[in-house]
Design a protein that fits this description.
The structure holds two protein chains of two kinds. Chain A is mostly helical. Chain A has 13 helices and four strands. Chain A folds into two domains: 37 residues; 217 residues, no CATH class. In chain A, strand 2 and strand 3 form a beta hairpin. The chains are: A mainly alpha, B mainly alpha.
């Protein structure tokens, strides 16, 4: 009995992951105590974490439906490049002197719109055409990467106004601003998944699609919603990413793709939905 | 249950039409016919713009330069049929290729030894994948994403990322061997490269295994089961043996592909193959293999590779800026998968109509 209880407890991914994080933290601390536990180091981790976290959330939402979103990074880069283009047009780095708070809002809307469009396209392919998610998003990834290279010709677009740079580099009460964004959005996604009818439908869909359809759930609509949310999350990651780097390029974050899948799985998301 | 019923009804129907329907109708039901049509259309368009496309010389060139992707795609096909997926094969090919290159440059060797080393390492790493997948029961995509990083990471650590340029002379000479030699208008010889012949050999081996051996047929059975393999198990198939074979086979093709890639470019760089895995998978998918297992043919896969090869070769000959490549290839993938999904849907609807009638 005792043993069984313990195994159950270990099987709980949340507990397991917390223990691993604690062990890694301790190990790092023991190996290099002076450097690791400095505020500076913790802060720099907190700056890098949010974009990966946002992308992983985008991956998680799709994996809960039983799919996978390979176009996540490409879509983030598309949002980033479009935002960078608009920023450079409205506030050229050579002549622009103000902080540009008004422009920032417009630019963020552009980025989010790009995310929504990609999400709608992915969702339509999966929900209405009936393509399996891995293939639809694989094609979308190749297509978007091509579009990104086509727009930028492989060059870096850089030089953003200070108000925009604040998003990725600023601090509020010593806490990095991206971390705050991530915490808020993670909380919002968490609530949407656990406390709303939509969230329940997503989990049902991932478990058994046929049963979900017979329970009068509008499956295509749920899928569409999920892909749009995923697109929005990737756009949000793009906002944080390009403002931190102060530039946008067609192949930023390419190595993140498999990491986001791993992060979502480590967090206990089942690949089969 | 109802799905099973539908499938049974549908299969009865299709069996009936196999004997009654005319040849054209039967061909129109096959995914391969559509790719073949696409290839012909593409050939007409490209030839209209640039006469140089439809020459034997260019064809042999395409067949040579795409044999690397072609060989790996056969391995990927076998894994997809069995219902799994392998992402790590590029890393396996790189490791095999690098160790092979180190040995033949340090000591002497010959081409047979080069292939033997690379294939041996490929199969070994493939078996390692299979062990993880079977004993820990982890989804294949996760295992192979993990082993991709482990294999590639270890290679970078031990090699220091160094390139190998000084490959022996016999290695370069082997790559130039032609099985069939012709002369073009300027008197320069061209012809069917030995590298293409290696690709063809891999195709023949795989086709034989898939079509005529019990092992090959059981691959389709295991893949068709989906995630729950117990029906295949009850039919007397040893799942463990099937999986060992599948991942050893993709390791085998990766090992060959590693040497072939080295033959083609005559340098060995640790980062030149890794990153191409999705291109290869895309070619197999365009060829009609299903990601959920159980279906897929060698013909389709070869046609899928050829479609991509002709596409990129044609774009170059039509002087389209290279920025457009990914856009076009992305569109082709989306079109191809959408078309086959829609056809699948129609089939299901027809089956439902039959049931209600």
């Amino acid at each position: 009995m005792e043993l069984k209880k313990r195994i159950n407890w270990i099987q709980n991914e949340f507990a397991m992951l917390s223990i691993i994080i604690l062990i890694v933290l301790l190990l790092m601390g023991v190996l290099n105590p002076l450097r690791f536990f400095r505020i500076y180091n913790l802060q720099s981790m907190a700056f890098q974490l949010p974009e990966l976290g946002l992308l992983s959330l985008g991956m998680m939402v799709i994996m809960l439906t039983g799919g996978i979103n390979l176009s996540l990074i490409a879509s983030a880069n598309l949002s980033g490049i479009l935002m960078a283009l608009v920023l450079n047009r409205l506030a050229p780095p050579e002549t622009f002197t103000g902080t540009g708070s008004g422009i920032v809002l417009l630019v963020i809307l552009v980025g989010l719109a790009a995310g929504i469009v990609v999400g709608l396209a992915n969702g339509a392919l999966v929900a209405y055409v009936g393509v399996s998610p891995i293939l639809a998003t694989l094609g979308m990834m190749t297509l978007l990467n091509g579009v990104n290279i086509l727009i930028t010709k492989g060059y870096v677009i850089s030089g953003f106004p200070p108000a925009f740079q604040f998003i990725g580099n600023g601090k509020v009460l010593g806490i990095p601003f991206p971390m705050i964004i991530f915490a808020l959005i993670a909380a919002a996604v968490g609530i949407a998944m656990k406390r709303t009818p939509y969230g329940l439908e997503v989990y049902m869909l991932g478990t058994n699609e046929t049963a979900t359809r017979y329970s009068a759930v509008n499956v295509p609509k749920v899928l569409m919603k999920s892909y749009v949310i995923s697109g929005l999350l990737s756009a949000t990651a793009a906002i944080v990413m390009i403002s931190r780097f102060n530039s946008a390029k067609s192949d930023y974050g390419e190595s993140y793709l498999l990491v986001t899948i791993l992060a979502a799985i480590l967090g206990g998301t089942n690949v089969y939905g | 249950m109802s799905q099973l019923l539908l499938r049974r009804i549908y299969s009865k129907r299709s069996n009936g039409s196999r004997y009654k329907g005319c040849i054209v109708k039967r061909l129109l039901q096959k995914h391969e016919s559509y790719i073949f049509l696409a290839i012909i259309l593409l050939t007409i368009v490209i030839t209209a713009i640039n006469q140089n496309f439809l020459t034997l010389e260019n064809l042999f060139d395409i067949l040579k330069s795409y044999s690397f992707i072609g060989i790996m795609s056969i391995g990927v096909l076998v894994v997809l049929i069995s219902g799994g997926i392998d992402i790590s094969f590029t890393a396996v090919a790189t490791v095999g290729q690098y160790i092979m290159a180190v040995i033949i440059t340090k000591y002497t060797g010959n081409i047979v030894l080069a292939f033997t080393i690379s294939i041996f390492i490929g199969i070994l790493l493939g078996l390692l994948n299979a062990m993880f997948i079977y004993f820990f029961n982890i989804p294949t995509i996760i295992v192979t994403i993990g082993t991709l990083n482990v294999f590639y990471g270890l290679l970078i650590v031990f090699s220091g990322g160094r390139w190998i340029y000084n490959l022996p002379e016999w290695f370069a000479r082997f790559a130039e061997i032609r099985v069939l030699t012709l002369l073009n208008a300027n008197g320069i010889p061209y012809g069917l490269s030995i590298i293409t012949v290696i690709w063809i050999a891999v195709i023949v081996i795989a086709a034989f295994i898939l079509r005529f051996t019990v092992l090959g047929r059981s691959l389709y059975a295991v893949g068709g089961c989906g995630f729950d393999k117990s029906p295949a198990q009850r039919a007397g198939i040893n799942i463990f043996r099937v999986q060992m074979f599948v991942y050893a086979f993709i390791g085998f093709t990766a090992g060959i592909a590693g040497v072939v890639q080295a033959l083609l470019v005559q340098t060995v760089a640790p980062n030149s193959i890794v990153g191409k895995e999705l291109n290869v998978i895309a070619a197999v998918i365009i060829g009609g293999a299903s990601i959920s297992g159980g279906t897929g043919t060698i013909t389709g896969t070869v046609l899928g590779v050829m479609l991509l090869a002709i596409l990129s070769n044609g774009l170059t000959l039509m002087r389209v800026p290279s920025y457009w490549y990914d856009v076009v290839i992305g569109l082709v993938i989306l079109l191809s998968v959408s078309a086959s999904a829609l056809r699948q849907k129609k089939k299901m609807q027809r089956a439902i109509a039959v049931e209600e009638a």
